[in-house]
Amino acid sequence: MQILSVDIERTMDKAIGDCGMTQELMDALAPKLEEARVAVMRAAGSGWLEWTDLPSADPSQFLDYAKEVRPHIDAVVVIGIGGSALGTTALATALLPFYYNERSRQDRGGNPKLYVLDNVDPDETFDLLSRLDLKRTLVNVISKSGTTGESMSSYLVFRQRLEALAGREKLKDLLVFTTDPSEGVLRKLGASLGVRMFDVPAGVGGRFSVLSAVGLLPAALVGMDVEELLRGAQEMESWIASAEGWDNPACLFAGIQYLNDTAFGRGISVMMPYSARLRDVADWFRQLWAESLGKAVNRQGETVNVGPLPVKSLGVTDQHSQLQLYSEGPDDKIITFLGVKEFQNDLTIPAPDAEAAALSYLAGHTIGELMWAEQKGTAWALAERGHPSVTITLDRVDAYHVGALLYMLEMATAISGELYDIDAFNQPGVELSKKATYALMGRPGYEDLAGRIG
Amino acid sequence: MQILSVDIERTMDKAIGDCGMTQELMDALAPKLEEARVAVMRAAGSGWLEWTDLPSADPSQFLDYAKEVRPHIDAVVVIGIGGSALGTTALATALLPFYYNERSRQDRGGNPKLYVLDNVDPDETFDLLSRLDLKRTLVNVISKSGTTGESMSSYLVFRQRLEALAGREKLKDLLVFTTDPSEGVLRKLGASLGVRMFDVPAGVGGRFSVLSAVGLLPAALVGMDVEELLRGAQEMESWIASAEGWDNPACLFAGIQYLNDTAFGRGISVMMPYSARLRDVADWFRQLWAESLGKAVNRQGETVNVGPLPVKSLGVTDQHSQLQLYSEGPDDKIITFLGVKEFQNDLTIPAPDAEAAALSYLAGHTIGELMWAEQKGTAWALAERGHPSVTITLDRVDAYHVGALLYMLEMATAISGELYDIDAFNQPGVELSKKATYALMGRPGYEDLAGRIG
After folding, report:
1. Residue A169: active-site member
2. How far off is chain A from B40, nearest CA to CA, in Å?
3. Tell me, what's the pLDDT at B26?
4. What is the pLDDT of residue B83?
5. Is the pLDDT reported for residue A454 higher than 90?
6. Domain spans in chain B, listed from the N-terminal domain onward
7. Are the C-beta atoms of A418 and A258 separated by less than 8 Å?
8. Residues 6+ apart with CB under 8 A from A118
9. Which of residues 5-64 of B touch A (CB under 8 A)?
10. What pLDDT score does B53 carry?
11. CB-based contact (8 Å) between A307 and chain B?
12. Which residues in chain A touch residue B306, judged by CB atoms under 8 angstroms apart?
């Protein structure tokens, strides 16, 4: 019994017809796929693949710190953007109860509220500040480089208020930084103020950092089961280390996505969870996949301009929004359904009044059965139209299974980088926009550029 | 001074180079574009274009009802899916303060909380039910047909609990239905229970219903300025009625999107607001655009399988997630930036400590200026890479401007339907999935299908 299943049956020609995957195509890719896996396993733990060491790291520093500070705080504010925020949001949506911040402390299991400030919207920032009792709020500033303009702006705004309220000496009790172990502005600021700091290891990029302090510190602070998260990731790691090629879940996911993009022109990859808890896993995946695989040049420096577009969708809700297009529009998409076998609390649908006899078919079923039937029915209906889908199924949404899912998708991303023959760990395409922002904000050294932008 | 601006400069060859829009292409489309506008204006108010009458309708029925019930309720729950939910969510995110449901009643302006249940996730439904004081909750069930399986399941679950709590006689005080004026199960149920009902006019499809009772009743219940919403839509309506072809904002948006899809192969349309308040306008647009334009056949019945993919993005957050792909990946996307000139509450960025001198360029600017610079810088950087973007700018995010924006996008959708020569108002592609769900749920008459799905 595996920790999750990856089912590609509804990508195959047998299921969807002429525009489906063939055994021949899969056989032809098999050697390259296994080479890709071996290359990733060989590089694991070094260079930009240091994140493969995270599942087996000891989380006690996070748990101890959380235990120490929890009595003193009512809320945690994570200030971070991109990979410094998306993992925490994915974990929060998946593992905290719905409406978490609206609940009483008791109803939150004695844990603080959690806010993730991942934008520089002034209205959002203002409204958040006005909600908080800052003397009982822990602000976790996350920036590996320590120079991320958006997060550091938010930090400066928060810091001014914290200092006005508590004085410079007490700042260290209200702040915690997650940053590079030795380099950068945030590290220096933390040292000067005596702020507690946690490390983002050098070879862990933002989008692969969810199982580092970036994701695990907030997780520990709100009482998530960090050990189970890591145990799930470890179990997935063992599976990926031991299964070859198409028998490997990360290879299977990566290989099918790659072939659908390159051999069938399906460059749009929709992730559609049938569990509202998993909706932000799809958003986290969006960064992982887009930023890793969207590249102008391959590793030989040749221009390729590749990269599938990851799209976040949500079942069943988006059946009433996107399904019409998926069903009748261009055949340029592959859907990944994320299903769960068991919900935490299911509800039985009661029988309708006589006037509503047309709804009788629903009665006696649970809401969860309806969700499951819609997922299955939609996958079938898409296949009837010739559209492929992959189905990833978890027994339930808990820390153990979510840890496994995230790690599987990270490994699938690294393997995909090998298949596309690109560097999955850089992001050169965002530099020009950063420079343009510097120029427009009047940063010294960018005067010429400011003139060009106009 | 117009109510909003639509700027296409950064789609043009002058701005983005060889793969940019040319004046010749625009001139060639001009007659067809104006014909499309005239066709829509001629059909306005009839058939499936009855939604064009909504801006000038009298909203006093919503306001009066809201005034009557507001003292008796602490929360409104909207049960609806797709077009019955997305408009309300878009309005709520845009026009209510952030963290609305976490605020005290006083801090909500004396208005009830608002929950939109747009899915059949059992955990979400269970957690919502456990949050509510059902005796002081108004449940607004929205289904035009009255047979939407998901919403009616949620209704049955809620109704059982309401009846157990308050008795059948009192159900009418805790429910309000929004449905077809004369047909359907929900209409019959409402009549039998004596529930107050509001109409979805016959010629208003779900995705064009935000300015009907579907959106305006919840809006009125939580104290939004419904009259200003309609006034903005009316002003946009007048503009669209009086400006021809490329001078018309809805035509301009529709025409540029259409040409980028059909002449340049840019079938992905990203909407990227630089205001967190507008994030769910992008989600609402996602349904509007996908379900209206994603069609298998044209109006001559020929197979076309058209439809651009609308993608929801968010500035600046997604610069740290999607921009790498937009910048370096395939040239198959057109970005629409939604910008606002003025935020409600701006915040000045304080000067950093000496250790963080690298951040000095931020000091003295406001957070809103940073947001604006990032938007401008990103549009420029994408153009440098040859990628087109449209910029829609509002003075501020308020009911008046949001009403205008939504109406402009609805009209642009109808005009696009003419350009693609498809029926923008049906959704035949979702039927097979519905039938499959019926079959899997054991609905009589679908036994054969159940066997095929397996």
Report:
1. no
2. 22
3. 98
4. 97
5. no
6. 4-42+229-423, 52-224, 430-454
7. no
8. A78, A80, A81, A82, A84, A85, A86, A89, B317
9. none
10. 97
11. yes
12. 329-330
Q: Is B250 helix (H, G, I), strand (E, B) or coil?
A: helix
Average pLDDT over residues A358-368: 96
Active site residues of B: 291, 320, 434
Architecture of domain A4-42+229-423: 3-Layer(aba) Sandwich (3.40)
Q: How many residues does chain A have?
A: 454
> pLDDT per residue over A254-303, tens digit each?
999 999 999 999 999 999 999 999 999 999 999 999 999 999 999 999 99
A376 carries an active-site annotation: no
Give the Å distances, CA to CA, from A143 to A152, A155, A413, A426, B367.
8, 10, 22, 16, 18
- DSSP output for A85-143: THHHHHHHHHHSPTTGGGS-TGGGTTPPEEEEE-S--HHHHHHHHHH--GGGEEEEEE-
Q: Apex CA A92: angle with CA A91 and CA A98, to 5°?
A: 135
pLDDT digits (tens, 9 = 90+) for A35-69: 999 999 999 999 999 999 999 999 999 999 999 99
Q: Which of A311, A368, A436 sits opposite B122 (nearest CB)?
A: A368
Q: Is residue A418 among the annotated active site residues?
A: no
Instruction: Provide the pLDDT for residue A236.
Output: 98
- List chain B residues with CB under 8 Å of A82: 317, 319-321
Q: CATH assignment of A52-224, given 3.40.190.150, 3.40.50.1010, 3.40.50.10490, 2.30.30.280?
A: 3.40.50.10490
* Radius of gyration of chain A measured on its C-alpha atoms: 23
Which residues lie closer than 8 Å to A60 by C-beta, 6 or more apart? none
In this structure, the number of other CB atoms found within 10 A of the CB of residue B133 comes to 10
A162: pLDDT strictly greater than 90: yes
B381 contact A CB<8A? yes
The percentage of residues in chain A with a pLDDT greater than 90, rounded to a whole number, is 99
Q: How confident is the model at residue B227 (pLDDT cuts 50, 70, 90)?
A: very high
Inter-chain CB proximity A440 and B82 less than 8 Å: no
Identical fold between A4-42+229-423 and A52-224:
yes
Task: Give the one of A374, A381, A434 whose C-beta lies nearest to B432's C-beta.
Answer: A381
pLDDT, one tens digit per residue, over A430-447 is 999 999 999 999 999 999
What is the nearest CA distance from A266 to chain B, expressed in angstroms? 12
Flag whether pLDDT at B1 surpasses 80: no
Looking at residue A414, its pLDDT comes to 98
Q: Scanning the structure block, which residue is given the tokens 């308040």?
A: B277
Q: Where are the alpha helices (DSSP H) in A347-398?
A: 367-384
